[in-house]
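This part of the workshop introduces the protein records we will be handling. Getting from the letters to the tokens is the skill we practise here. An example says more than a description, so a record of this kind follows:
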Amino acid sequence: MSAEISPSEIEETVKRAQQGSVEDFHTLYDLFSKPIYNFIWRLIGSTQDAEDLTQETFLKVHREIKNVRQPGQFKFWLYRVARNEVYQKLRHSKKASEVLVDNTTIDSFDFLPHHSPDINPEKRALHQELNKIISRTLQAMAPKYRDVFVLAVFHKMSYEDITQIVDRSLLSVKTDIYRARVTVKEALNEYLKRADR
């Protein structure tokens, strides 16, 4: 199925999956597993944990998809399931406040230039270093800031969509995204000041 699947097609796919269609559940998995993996990885910072929790999320979704009362809201419900799996893992491992960074999987952040063959080695090294700083800053944030920041910046979700996932007011979501952005910006500025000395 095309990545350009419409919301109404997703809703119909969910309905068929609720009735036991294995093929339609696989379609949902193919459609959402990568964004859910990326969401979890941004929250938890570990490749292995992100892989495990993505599988756990979809196992839970498979078990509970029949209970989704509004198939058109499936995406928001799916992100809530994934978020809950992350928080459960952090509570159990008592690592909620640790800085977890897997340096082998840090991607380009949206507000940094993307890698291209034209970028010279010095610039590429700087981009990689800035990405590490951002990732560390993200992992050190309180979860309530981190999850809304990840949804807004990396998943390009609207404030309204984010409120449905985190179950908080629009004002709270906007405020926390703003604070998270300021925190990331300050961390980058601090690094760049040190690099200039």
Summary: Helices lie at 7-18, 22-44, 47-64, 74-93, 121-140, 143-154, 159-166, 170-196.
